[in-house]
From TrEMBL:
Domain SHSP: 34-144
Origin organism lineage: Bacteria, Bacillati, Actinomycetota, Coriobacteriia, Coriobacteriales
Similarity field: Belongs to the small heat shock protein (HSP20) family.
Pfam families found in the cross-reference section: HSP20
Domain of life: Bacteria
Name this protein carries in UniProt: SHSP domain-containing protein
Organism: Collinsella tanakaei YIT 12063
Length: 144
């Protein structure tokens, strides 16, 4: 018969019920801002017919911290944000910015290596990837 305990034990540890709703919210924020939390950024990939348009949402990131690479059909967008040196000497009461790096990739099977474009404005990186057009040289062969 099933137990009447309202919480399932995970790894032998039962969760502690917070004293208030505010404590529960603070606990969630601590988990979300932990170093193990994913710092991945959202991306959109749109097929425009003759090209792909990839948008990466990188709010608060400098253009110099972004790297875009296409390698054998795999488009990789990497971000490496470092804490500024002048911030290290300040006396913060609370500091939530941390250095981080993240990479997102998408496989575009017919991506061409030439003609790629990248534009970064208002926190959105837009990458244009033309599609490889296979040239079909059809030659009619006469039969003797």
């Amino acid at each position: 018969m099933a137990s009447m305990v309202p919480y399932r034990s995970v790894f032998g540890v039962r969760p502690v019920v917070p004293a208030s709703l505010f404590d529960a919210f603070d606990d969630m924020m601590d988990i979300a801002s932990s170093p193990l939390a994913s710092k991945a950024f959202p991306i959109d990939v749109e097929d425009k017919g003759d090209a792909y348009e990839v948008k990466a949402y990188l709010t608060g990131v400098s253009k110099d911290d972004i790297d875009v690479e296409l390698n054998e059909g795999r488009l990789s967008i990497s971000v490496n944000v470092e804490e500024k040196e002048e911030d290290k000497d300040k006396n913060f009461l609370q500091k939530e910015f941390v250095s981080y790096s993240a990479t997102r990739g998408v496989y575009l099977k017919d991506a061409a290596c030439e003609g790629l474009t990248a534009r970064y404005a208002d926190g959105v990186l837009t990458v244009g990837v033309p599609k490889f057009v296979e040239k079909k040289n059809v030659t009619k062969v006469a039969i003797d």
